[in-house]
Design brief:
Structural class: alpha/beta
Number of helices: 16
Shape: globular
Strand content: 5-15%
Mean pLDDT: 87
Low-confidence stretches: 1-9, 445-486
Number of strands: 15
Distance between the termini: 29 Å
Helix content: 25-40%
Largest sheet: 7 strands, mixed
């Protein structure tokens, strides 16, 4: 039962014991994909329910008077965890929201453009396209094909900035890149990219969606211009909650939240009148930046108030950040080595072994792309990735995202404290079965993928003879490489 909370009194062994004692995953479900939506333990669930109950007991008192105080406490815990000043930290529902906030607020002069890596998250890529459509801002897509060494990536990034500048007509206004990219799930030398941006007078917008709780960030040392990270992925905070960090020197660039709400301060107009805050609360002590995000429309704010409990769980039950990160990285890498033996393939890694210095590993699947016998046609790559991922879930109750990069199929493993090697062995063997030639014959020839025009809602795979197989949620991906949405 959810209310049967195990007291936080001592550390708990990782793996099956941790899962059975503290997490709420279904008994038959094997989650090798913590990175997409995360999950949280029972003590954090208890805190979530406490806050929701408090909100419903006296809604006005909670939202007007109690929540602001509780939010400041939660912000203080997050600021301390990140080693940054309190008035530089706010919460938003997710990293996508924070990136939208930055791009909507930034003013671009003629010739100022956006630079990004080709591996950025799909929704961010679409945001860049929206900015282009509505404001005419151009962008440069720096193609990245893994595996690649950090030195090569950093050099290419700096060269791209200089090439834009050398044209004499343009300059890079802001560069967007990940701490750890999503698909493929690899660690990016983001700290070095921030340094390049600083040297080249370019604003750095860091999508750390997979950062907080997975790697040691060192924000106070790296000093990006804008940083965001989902707390509901790797920090064991309920969905939806992300931290948004903006140093004081850049806060004047952020004039509105998304959506615009009570914290926005309009520029004076001759015929304008003062717009009063209907919440009628005292906000005189808040900085303008913090005030922007204090109340952004009515929503369930309870996840924002679970930061302290999540950090307490990580400290007292898990034994601290270093222990968590060490286990997640090691189990992910051990799982990849085991899967390689089962599948007869290889791990996505560079020569300096930096891509896997995180809780993600990417293992190649034994599928060949081409026009020959037993090969998968290039135009069917998306269909096959969608089919394998969906069938793996439906038939084996396992989720491990399948995607393609550099014309190869991969699966991404997420290391986590509730997993052990047996879970990954189960996943690898199930994937091997789905990759067999006889299994894939059901998809070809003459099959077409059918989904709604938006590409975001459940679709069907139409097989030869008009039969169908129902799929879950899918989506097109970033700049030419559609994958299962993660």
């Amino acid at each position: 039962m959810a209310d049967a909370i195990i007291p936080i009194t001592a550390t708990c062994p990782f793996g099956r014991t941790m899962r059975d004692t503290h997490f709420m995953l279904a008994p038959t479900y094997t989650s090798l994909n913590h990175g997409s939506f995360g999950t949280y333990p029972r003590p954090v669930q208890k805190r979530l329910h406490e806050c929701q109950t408090l909100s419903e007991a006296r809604p006005d008192k909670f939202h007007r008077y109690e929540f602001p105080v509780m939010l400041d406490t939660s912000r203080a815990a997050m600021a301390s965890f990140l080693h940054v000043p309190l008035d530089e930290v706010v919460f938003v529902p997710n990293a996508t929201t924070a990136i939208n906030v930055v791009l909507h607020n930034l003013r671009f002069d003629e010739g100022e453009i956006i630079l990004h890596l080709s591996t950025l998250y799909g929704s961010v890529a679409k945001m860049i396209e929206y900015i282009h459509e509505t404001r005419g801002v151009e962008s440069v897509n720096l193609a990245v094909e893994y595996p690649i060494d950090d030195d090569v990536l950093v050099s290419s990034f700096q060269t791209a900035i200089k090439d834009v500048k050398s044209s004499g007509r343009q300059r890079v206004r802001v560069a967007i890149f990940d701490t750890i990219s999503s698909l493929p799930g690899v660690r990016v030398p983001w700290d070095r990219l921030v340094e390049v941006c600083r040297d080249e007078n370019v604003l750095s917008l860091v999508d750390g969606a997979h950062g907080v709780g997975q790697i040691d960030l060192g924000l106070s040392k790296v000093r990006p211009d804008f940083f965001t990270s989902n707390c509901h992925k790797w920090l064991y905070v309920p969905r939806a909650c992300a931290v948004f960090h903006v140093p004081k020197k850049n806060q004047h660039l952020i004039r509105t939240s998304m959506p615009t709400s009570h914290g926005f301060v309009p520029r004076p107009r001759a015929s304008g009148t003062e717009i009063l805050n209907p919440l009628m609360t005292d906000t005189s002590g808040e900085s303008p930046f913090v005030l922007l995000f204090g109340f952004v429309a009515t929503m369930d704010v309870s996840p924002y108030l679970c930061i302290e409990e999540a950090l307490k769980f990580r400290r007292e039950v898990c034994g601290g950040e270093e222990k968590i990160m060490k286990y997640c990285e090691e189990i992910s890498n051990e799982a990849a080595r085991l899967a390689v033996k089962i599948l007869g393939t290889d791990v996505m890694e560079n020569e300096t072994k930096t891509l896997t210095k995180c809780a993600f590993t990417n293992v190649r699947l034994p599928l060949e792309i081409g026009n020959g016998q037993g090969q998968i046609l290039e135009q069917d790559m998306y269909l096959v990735a969608v089919w394998i991922t969906a069938v793996l879930m439906r038939e084996s109750d396992i989720h491990s995202p399948v995607f393609f990069h550099a014309k190869r199929f991969w699966t991404r493993f997420s290391g986590q404290i509730y997993l052990d090697l047996g879970d990954f062995e189960k996943g690898a063997r199930a994937l091997k079965g789905l990759c067999k030639g006889e299994t894939l014959k059901t998809l070809r020839p003459h099959c077409t993928y059918v989904c709604t025009a938006s590409g975001r809602h459940g679709g069907d795979v139409r097989l030869t003879g008009g039969t169908k197989q129902k799929l879950g949620h899918v989506a097109t991906s970033n700049y030419g490489e559609p994958v299962v949405e993660e």
